[in-house]
Amino acid sequence: MIKINVAEIRRHLTGNKLLQFDAKPEELDIAETELPIAGTVRIDGEISNVGDVLLLQARVSARVNRMCSRCLKEFTADSAAEVVEKYYPSGSPGVENDAYVYEADIVDITEPLRESLLLAEPLRVLCKEDCLGICPVCGADRNVHPCSCDTGTIDPRLAALKQFIKY
Ligand SMILES: [Zn+2]
Ligand SMILES: [Zn+2]
């Protein structure tokens, strides 16, 4: 959990507090199975007092371990996300249920940092845009060992059909 004491900035109408630190993945409640982070997570931003709410603006970045979904190669890549969230004083009227609130001058910024970094992961990870993947016939990584397998006749039912058409 990452909690920021905002007592000081709440005393000033335009007060802000810089956030510049590294956090361990577990401090952001990010498990290895959710997102394998290599090293620590960098947070750069600020919390500012903008009147009736506190505004969190930050950039979250980390090196993450990824695996290509085509060739299964493991590699590390830079991931980053921008976070902008409002925090309302708890008990203030008209605040929606899912809004972030804070109590007793303590703002817990764990959740938005965690979520934005998880959402920054691409749904389909590729080591490179034009990754050739693994040959379904011989199993070679076609980026490294181009093979000349005929992947057009991999489906035996399809092969039988082709045979049929020929005669
Ligand atoms: Zn690949
Ligand atoms: Zn092959």
Automatic annotation (TrEMBL):
It comes from Succiniclasticum ruminis DSM 9236. InterPro entries: YceD. Pfam families: YceD. This is DUF177 domain-containing protein.
